[in-house]
TrEMBL record:
It comes from the Eukaryota. The chain crosses the membrane at residues 12-30. Residues 120-281 form the Disease resistance R13L4/SHOC-2-like LRR domain. It is found in: Membrane. It is a single-pass type I membrane protein. Its main location: membrane. Residues 54-99 form the Leucine-rich repeat-containing N-terminal plant-type domain. GO terms for cellular component: membrane. This is Leucine-rich repeat-containing N-terminal plant-type domain-containing protein. InterPro entries: LRR_dom_sf, LRR_N_plant-typ, LRR_R13L4/SHOC2-like, RLP23-like. Keywords: Glycoprotein, Leucine-rich repeat, Membrane, Repeat, Signal, Transmembrane, Transmembrane helix.
Length: 287
């Protein structure tokens, strides 16, 4: 009797176990079929990501604006099969990253490349770009007006180039930016008020430029800022630092070499920044 019950029990469990196994197998078959069918849209026969033709043309146009590329950073950016490793699939090009499902270009990472030239306006066609890093090259102006385009851009790094105009107005419309670095260029004129509209910024680097005038109060709108670098702005006088006490998330503040001689309440303002852990105020003519 006991044996029979035990057997029944076992049979019951075995059936159930078999049922679960079948479900799992079925689920995994369905998963692979859907995965392959969605992969087919964005990948070629070899499994490489296929890039979007419009974006490929935008990149080729970007390349056509580069006068010097001594390290051959863009040598893979070509249709010609003669070049080793060349492919027309722009997602395979050096410095280019695409979304691995959609094939849209999301990242352009070309820092430290000794590239010399202008920035092509064709970049407006990289609609899904989130990360643009052209730092430490020899790019010069004028920067094209990327008005209302590149709305996905989160990270813009133009540090260490030779831009010598005023900060372009389209920056004020890039309200999703988290990271903006324009340091170590020759940007002139004022630090514009419209920087105050880029309220999602976590990092803002403006150091070592040729700005004149004074700091706009509107920087006090950047309440998410965690790091701010305004060092080495030699023709620049900061008369009022009240806006700074609005930046309650600020962890790092670098102002060395920028005169604070006229900002007489700087002690109170700095003391109000409770999260500050890195502070650099050397050669600031503190009074
Ligand atoms: C696709 O990208 C995601 C996120 O970037 C990553 O986690 C994933 O491993 C990638 N898949 C393939 C097949 O490269
Ligand atoms: C963007 O791409 C379209 C073709 O899709 C082209 O006609 C247009 O000139 C491109 N824009 C720029 C600024 O290169
Ligand atoms: C870009 O915006 C500026 C300032 O808002 C404006 O003067 C210019 O005409 C705009 N350009 C385009 C192409 O929309
Ligand atoms: C900016 O640099 C270019 C050379 O790249 C030069 O011709 C131009 O005069 C400079 N403009 C200013 C305002 O210095
Ligand atoms: C700064 O914020 C105030 C309100 O908080 C707003 O009225 C003003 O337009 C903002 N300025 C900029 C440049 O975004
Ligand atoms: C600072 O201003 C003076 C006079 O306006 C000018 O001669 C000098 O070139 C400026 N220096 C910088 C670094 O902009
Ligand atoms: C700042 O420089 C620009 C030209 O570069 C000049 O037109 C303007 O008068 C200067 N402003 C100040 C306050 O020196
Ligand atoms: C500080 O931020 C508030 C909003 O959080 C804004 O209304 C005010 O204008 C800012 N003050 C300055 C000096 O920017």
């Amino acid at each position: 009797m006991a044996k029979q019950i035990l057997y029944k029990h076992f049979a019951h469990h075995a059936t159930f176990f078999f049922f679960i196994c079948s479900l799992l197998v079925l689920a995994s078959i369905m998963k692979t079929t859907t995965a392959t069918s969605s992969r087919h849209q964005a990948r070629d026969e070899a499994g490489d990501l296929k890039c979007i033709e419009k974006e490929r043309q935008a990149l080729l146009h970007f390349k056509s604006y580069i006068r010097q590329d001594p390290d051959g950073r863009l040598s893979t950016w070509t249709d010609e099969k003669k070049v080793e490793e060349a492919t027309s699939e722009c997602c395979e090009w050096s410095g280019v990253t695409c979304n691995n499902k959609t094939g849209h270009v999301t990242t352009l990472q070309l820092s430290n490349g000794y590239l010399e030239g202008k920035i092509s306006p064709s970049l407006v066609n990289l609609t899904y770009l989130t990360h643009l890093d052209l730092s430490w090259n020899h790019f010069h102006g004028p920067i094209p007006m990327f008005n209302g385009s590149m709305t996905q851009l989160r990270h813009l790094n133009l540090q260490g180039n030779v831009f010598n105009e005023t900060i372009p107005m389209f920056i004020g419309s890039m309200t999703h930016l988290r990271f903006l670095d324009l340091s170590f260029n020759h940007f002139t004129g004022n630090i514009p008020l419209f920087i105050g509209s880029v309220t999602q910024l976590r990092y803002l680097g403006l150091y070592l430029n040729d700005f004149n005038g004074t700091i706009p109060m509107e920087l006090g709108n950047l309440t998410n800022l965690q790091e701010l670098s305004l060092r080495g702005l030699s023709n620049f006088t900061i008369e009022n630092l009240n806006w700074l006490s609005n930046l309650s998330h600020l962890k790092s503040l670098y102002m060395d070499g920028t005169s604070l001689a006229k900002a007489n309440n700087w002690v109170n303002v700095i003391q109000s920044l409770k999260k500050l852990s890195d502070l650099s105020l050397s050669r600031c003519d503190l009074s």
